[in-house]
Design goal:
251 residues, alpha/beta, 6-stranded mixed β-sheet, 3-stranded antiparallel β-sheet, 9 helices, 9 strands
């Protein structure tokens, strides 16, 4: 199992100060691979191009050039097959407010065509895993942030995907909720799944990622293990590495 990002570029057109249309590259010629049992961190400041990149990997957006291959196929070649293999979770994923977590999990399962028996078993295991019994049949609108977040992750597990694409999933969460996400990443890694994880929290990435793809202004400025990047930049942590790599170009 392998995910490959090959020379992916995404071009957008925006208006400049004089109201003229101007092209800019949200992502510029990005390449990396991710294997099963590997957590790959896409790290960089806000506005670096992380969300656009993860949306292209998840098949929500199409690259302007380059390609994303999942098990040697592009989204266009195997749209349904790939959708069943991946789960996408972003920090601002919204859930239906008027249904309960249980109803959401059932709905997600049927969307992914998981058969009823398997689905019931999976829901039971997920509810136990995330300790959801106490709020399982409450309306999602009434949940606390931590409960909402657990429901959001639970939704990703129902179809037992092979690839998890997590976009700033811990952004703005309290320490307990973010810990539940980081623990979850460690667990799915042990199950030999592949996790692509974007964050601007460098310390978090350092602790959890096998491989780092550091991007700034749409370009890869370093990639490798956290240790390799620190060694190369003669620094002791990824935050310092980042500043060493961009020099005075930070605006």
């Amino acid at each position: 199992n392998m995910l490959e990002v090959r020379n992916v570029t995404k071009k957008f057109v925006k208006k400049n100060k004089n109201n003229q249309s101007e092209e800019f590259l949200a992502d510029n010629d990005i390449s990396f691979t991710a294997k099963e049992g590997e957590v790959v961190g896409i790290i960089g400041p806000n506005g670096a191009g992380k969300t656009t990149l993860l949306r292209m990997i998840a098949g929500i957006m199409e690259p302007t050039s380059g390609e994303v291959l999942i098990d040697s196929k592009t989204h266009q070649e195997d749209m349904i097959g790939i959708k069943k293999k991946i789960a996408f979770l972003s920090g601002n994923t919204k859930l239906y407010k008027d249904i309960s977590p249980y109803e959401l999990l059932e709905m997600t399962g049927s969307y992914y065509e998981v058969d009823k028996k398997t689905l019931e078993k999976r829901i039971k295991a997920i509810v136990k895993k995330f300790n959801m019994e106490s709020f399982l049949h409450q309306k999602i609108a009434t949940l606390s942030t931590g409960q909402y977040q657990r429901t959001s992750i639970a939704r990703c597990l129902v179809h037992n995907p092979e690839y998890y694409i997590l976009d700033e999933a811990t952004s703005g969460l309290d320490v307990i909720s973010s810990k539940s996400i980081l623990d979850f990443i460690k667990e799915v890694k042990e199950e030999n799944k592949c996790i692509i994880y974007s964050t601007h929290y460098m310390e978090e990435a350092e602790n959890i990622c096998d491989k780092i793809v550091m991007i700034n202004k749409g370009k890869v400025i370093a990639q490798g293990t956290p240790t390799e990047i620190c060694k190369k930049t003669k620094t002791t942590n990824l935050r310092d590495s980042f500043f060493a790599l961009i020099g005075d170009k930070y605006e």
